[in-house]
Amino acid sequence: MSNALLRAAAQRRRVYMDGTAARALHTTIFADPVPLGRITFELFKDVVPRTAENFRQYCTGEHRSAQGRPQGYKGSRFHRIIQDFMCQGGDFLHGDGTGSACIYGTKSFADENFVLKHDQPGLLSMANSGPNTNGSQFFITTKPTPFLDSKHVVFGKVVDGMDVVRKMEATKTGHRGKDMPNLDVIIAQCGEM
């Protein structure tokens, strides 16, 4: 690895998410939560700085809504899980994949670039509804997904906790839609390391 790449990698920020699985009794009350473990991500801020910063701020909860309330992933769900493909979360507005936000004062932001490819499991990539519609939703790949290249921006990778991603991936689905987990897979805690 070149010195420039080593320096860039050393400057990359790391964030974490602690997951739990539980049955929802109410929108904020869960029965028998089971800890799944911690996922640690390295963010590629040297390649896609705006995308990485958007995700980082939602992990830390430092971004504020127009009303001054903290916004972030803590307490939100992974609303879509497809075995042998990906686990998707980030809709902290509605919890069902219909909500999204971004830190840049607009509803969404543009694709930064498609330099990084979906060539391995454990990549962190932006979920979107078409070109230049990035917001708060993201997914974690569970296998190489080259058909997503040039459509979704890769901005990080799992550096620890792929076993947790595999536990999430194994969650039975079909509740309120074919890809929605039967149990709520919740981001119980998240932040910057």
UniProtKB/TrEMBL annotation:
Single Gene Ontology MF annotation: cyclosporin A binding
Kindly state which reaction or reactions the protein catalyses.
[protein]-peptidylproline (omega=180) = [protein]-peptidylproline (omega=0)
Enzyme Commission number(s) of this protein: 5.2.1.8
Recorded hits in Pfam families, A to Z, give: Pro_isomerase (PF00160)
Q: Which CDD domains does the protein's record reference?
A: cyclophilin_ABH_like
Q: What class of enzyme is it?
A: isomerase
Q: What's this protein's function?
A: PPIases accelerate the folding of proteins. It catalyzes the cis-trans isomerization of proline imidic peptide bonds in oligopeptides.
> Per the similarity annotation, which family is this?
Belongs to the cyclophilin-type PPIase family. PPIase H subfamily.
Q: What is this protein called?
A: Peptidyl-prolyl cis-trans isomerase
Q: Give me the gene this protein comes from.
A: 20344416
